[in-house]
Amino acid sequence: MTAPTSPLPAQSTGVFASLSVHNYRLYFGGQAVSLIGTWMQATAQAWLVLTLSGSSSILGLIVALQALPILIIGPYAGVIADRVDRRLLMIFLQSIMGVLALVLAILTLGGWIEVWQIAILALLLGLNNAFENPARQAFIHQIVGESLIRNAVTLNSVMVNAARAIGPAVAGVLLAAVGAGWCFVINATSFVAVVVSLVAMRTSEISHEIPVPRAKGQLREGLRYVRSKPILWVPLVMMALVGTLAYEFQVSLPVAARDVFDGGPQAFGFMTSSMGVGAVVGGLIVAARGTTGLRTLIVTATGFGITIAVTAAAPSLWLAIVALFFVGWLSVSFMSTGNATLQLNSRPQMRGRVMALWSVAFMGSTPIGGPLIGAITQVAGARTGLAVGAASCFVAAAIGLAVWRRTR
User: Domain of life of the organism in this record (predicted)?
Assistant: First the structure.
């Protein structure tokens, strides 16, 4: 049950409609700063692991460890998100993430860093993410309300990918100049912005959703609820497939930069940044004109697969960078369409559990996909790893099309 404690301010329309809401502006600003640091750390960590181990399989395992808690406890974390004050939970968990980034920075700058230490810290970060993701996803709805949720979700994706355009490029320069440690320092500092933005929010303008009382069987209840609605379970199945095999760019792209295009960390940074720029452009278009539903999700999954396939076949680094621009565009379109479709079709008291399953499908699939794509890349090369991801998009689109035709 939702009971607003105070009406939200008058809402505007257009690409940046959600930014008319004071609390969303705070959230957006804090997240924008932090996510640049997050992408800097992701880029630096991937290159550091590849440098220390020389193995794409080990890189895949590290990426998998970070997502493993989401796969194992993600659905239960959604139950917690429906029971507690989501803003307070986010403040606590974001603070812990900053501490973990600081520990990684100290170990790296001190010259003590080893792969097993990165693995442990990645696992702990994944544990935080398992609880923070569903709370954050559901909290956006409390800030902006029903009418702006699609716009807010899309702008959130734009923000993530704008950070992906900036963070990896900066990380590539810093990696070449001063090493990975300073990337981790910047990320640790960036979490201050998130915590401050959450603390500074006007609580009277946050839509109050009465916490679900603790009871037995709430996880099973959520699973039954999703299973009963094709508009919920089909996007989750599609994202699980695409998330497992297509979104493993942290594994395939650094290997492609090094082995296929004979580049270094700067080449990897530019490739990742190109995806980010494309995602920003595509996200702004989706924010202004985008629609939700299975039909749109099917179209974007198909386009996503085509662009990844073109990247896999690119004969040069610069052509790959151009192709990755469109990969980013279709990536954010697919992601934001699926996310908004779930949010708009979920009951408020179920939204935390539904969005936890979305996190499991998107990031929790990495413990399977990361090592798998890492092994494929190790044996058959980065082009093959990317091609497998493209194929998964086509299969997901086919599944969605079959259900859509039967149920429309």
Answer: Bacteria
CA distances from 248 to 9, 116, 121, 164, 343 (A): 40, 21, 19, 15, 25
Confidence (pTM): 0.70
Query: Would you mind telling me the total number of residues written for the chain in this entry?
Result: 408
Composition of the chain by helix, strand, coil, percent to 5: 85, 0, 15
327, 275 Cβ separation under 8 angstroms: yes
CA–CA gap between residue 65 and residue 122 (Å, rounded): 6
Helix residue ranges, H only, 2-114 = 22-53, 56-83, 86-109
Give pLDDT tens digits for 209-249.
666 667 677 788 888 999 999 989 999 999 999 988 998 88
Residue range 102-115: mean pLDDT, rounded: 94
Count of helix runs (H) and strand runs (E) in the chain: 15, 2
Question: Which residue do the tokens 């044996």 mark?
Answer: 379
Nearest Cα to Cα of residue 341 among 244, 229, 248, 246: 229
The string over 327-354, giving b where at least 16 C-beta atoms fall within 10 Å of a residue's C-beta and e elsewhere, is: bbbbbbbbbbbbbbbbbebbebbbbbbb
Buried b / exposed e over 236-248, threshold 16 CB at 10 Å, is bbbbbbbbbbbbb
Question: Residue 199 and residue 196: Cα distance in Å, rounded?
Answer: 5
Q: Is 175 left (phi over 0), alpha (psi -120 to 50) or beta?
A: alpha
208 DSSP β-pair partners = 3
- 184 within 8 A of 105, measured Cβ to Cβ: yes
What is the DSSP pairing of strand 2-4 with strand 207-209?
Answer: antiparallel
d(CA 355, CA 365): 14
- Torsion sign over Cα 252, 240, 368, 121: positive
Using alpha carbons only, what angle is made at residue 303 by residues 301 and 306, rounded to the nearest 5 degrees? 110
Q: How far is the C-alpha of 391 from the C-alpha of 350, rounded, in Å?
A: 32
The answer to whether residues 248 and 369 touch, using CB atoms and an 8 Å cutoff, is: yes
Tens digit of pLDDT for each residue in 336-395?
888 878 878 888 778 778 888 887 888 767 778 878 888 898 889 899 999 999 999 999
Cβ neighbours for 215, distance < 8 A, ≥ 6 positions apart: none
Spatial contact of 188 and 98, defined as CB atoms under 8 Å apart: yes
**Neighbour tally for 150: CB within 10 Å:** 24
- Asked whether residue 5 carries a pLDDT value surpassing 60, the answer given is no
